[in-house]
């Protein structure tokens, strides 16, 4: 370039160069990042004050097409800086070999991203399937427990009926008085455990 009398006239030319060649675009970004980090990491922060930097003017001075992503700029707004409307990822290197390597790297990134998305989806579906299977197992256990409880109730009712029948047979055969019958009938109503009160001899008499 020929020396320019007005430095401001260089900015449009530099931006055009950055749009035409990714090497120029990346050099501007690296220069801006280095300048900002030099302020952020300088020991004499009383003189080199990061918060006093005019980031928008600095970015314009480096002919940036957009603001870089860096911790020092996080959460800040730059109304005086107008980025380009195009996607800067589409800017290619003039050097064909560098561009070929970049495209290969981008393709690898897209492939890894797709694989990661597939893994996340698989893990999500697997977790959902596992949760569903767990619910089904719990449901079956509850149903089984309910059936067992119903069987227990039926067994208790049947045992109580058998006990009452035995007592009635004893009463009819004269082996038991009405007072004893009523007493044992009430005792049998308390549960199967009261069956032991009948004694082994009483049970043998039922079979005769």
In angstroms, what is the radius of gyration?
Answer: 45 Å
- Are there runs of 5+ residues with pLDDT below 50, and where? 191-208
Shape: rod-shaped
Secondary-structure element series: HHHHHH
Assembly state here? single chain
| Average predicted local confidence, pLDDT | 80
Quick one: how many beta strands? 0
**What is the overall number of helices?**
6
* Helical percentage: 55-70%
- SS-derived structural category: mainly alpha
Q: In angstroms, what separates the terminal alpha carbons?
A: 127 Å
Approximate strand percentage: under 5%
Largest sheet: none
Q: How would you describe what is shown here?
A:
The chain has helices at about 10-20, 20-40, 55-60, 95-170, 180-190, 200-205. It is rod-shaped. Among the domains are: about 10-90, no CATH class; about 155-190. The protein is mostly helical. This is DEAD-box helicase 55.
């Amino acid at each position: 370039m020929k020396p320019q009398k007005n430095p401001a006239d260089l900015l449009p030319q530099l931006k055009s160069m950055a749009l035409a060649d990714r090497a120029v675009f990346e050099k501007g970004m690296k220069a801006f990042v280095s300048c900002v980090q030099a302020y952020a990491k300088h020991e004499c922060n009383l003189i080199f004050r990061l918060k006093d930097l005019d980031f928008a003017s600095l970015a314009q001075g480096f002919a940036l097409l957009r603001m870089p992503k860096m911790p020092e700029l996080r959460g800040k707004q730059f109304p005086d800086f107008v980025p380009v409307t195009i996607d800067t990822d589409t800017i290619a290197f003039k050097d064909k070999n560098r561009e070929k390597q970049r495209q290969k790297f981008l393709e690898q990134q897209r492939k890894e991203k797709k694989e990661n998305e597939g893994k996340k989806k698989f893990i999500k579906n697997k977790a959902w399937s596992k949760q569903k299977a767990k619910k089904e197992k719990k449901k079956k256990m509850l149903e089984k427990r309910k059936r067992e409880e119903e069987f227990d109730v039926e067994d208790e009712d049947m045992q109580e009926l058998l006990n009452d029948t035995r007592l009635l047979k004893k009463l009819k055969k004269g082996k038991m008085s009405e007072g004893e019958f009523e007493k044992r009938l009430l005792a049998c109503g308390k549960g199967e455990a009261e069956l032991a009160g009948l004694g082994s001899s009483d049970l043998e008499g039922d079979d005769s």
